[in-house]
Amino acid sequence: QVQLVESGGGLVQAGGSLRLSCAASGRTFIGYTMGWFRQAPGKERDFVARITWNPVFTYYTDSVKGRFTISRDNAKNTVYLQMNSLKPEDTAVYYCAAAPAGRTQYDYWGQGTQVTVTS
User: Fold this and answer.
1) Looking at residue 104, what is its pLDDT?
2) Are 51 and 109 in contact (CB under 8 A)?
3) Over the stretch 2-32, which tens digit does the pLDDT of each residue have?
4) C-alpha angle 22/43/40, rounded to 5°?
């Protein structure tokens, strides 16, 4: 089965930058739509960004538009989330997920990586 492992989380100050990585193992994510989600304490898991396979399109939730960039390196089976101009409200556990081509359901999820942004 596909396994997703996030990395790159940490503690940063407001206005700083961080790049998250999600590496797939076991099977490649060829044809998959890849997404990033986040969950803050006491809140539901929210969509952050996604990137499709072919054609390649990216989508972002309004609160991160202009600040976050999702990308993928298919040769490395890795998806990235570049986060700039971070705000305290971005603090959350960030999850990587994969949805098979032509599907809306994300079948595979990573364990999450903590991102904490201080004032």
Assistant:
1) 82
2) no
3) 899 999 999 999 999 999 999 998 766 788 9
4) 45
Q: Which two tokens stand for residue 28?
A: 């490649």
Tokens of 105: 């359901």
Three-state secondary structure string covering 17-73: CEEEEEEEECCCCCCCEEEEEEECCCCCCEEEEEECCCCCCEEECHHHCCCEEEEEE
Q: How many CA atoms lie within 13 A of 5 on its CB side?
A: 8
Contacts of 26 (CB under 8 A, 6+ apart): 1, 2, 3
Q: Which amino acid is at 23?
A: A
Q: How many CB atoms are located within 10 Å of the residue 101 CB?
A: 12
Give the DSSP H/E element, type plus range, for residue 118.
strand 113-118
pLDDT at 78 over 70: yes
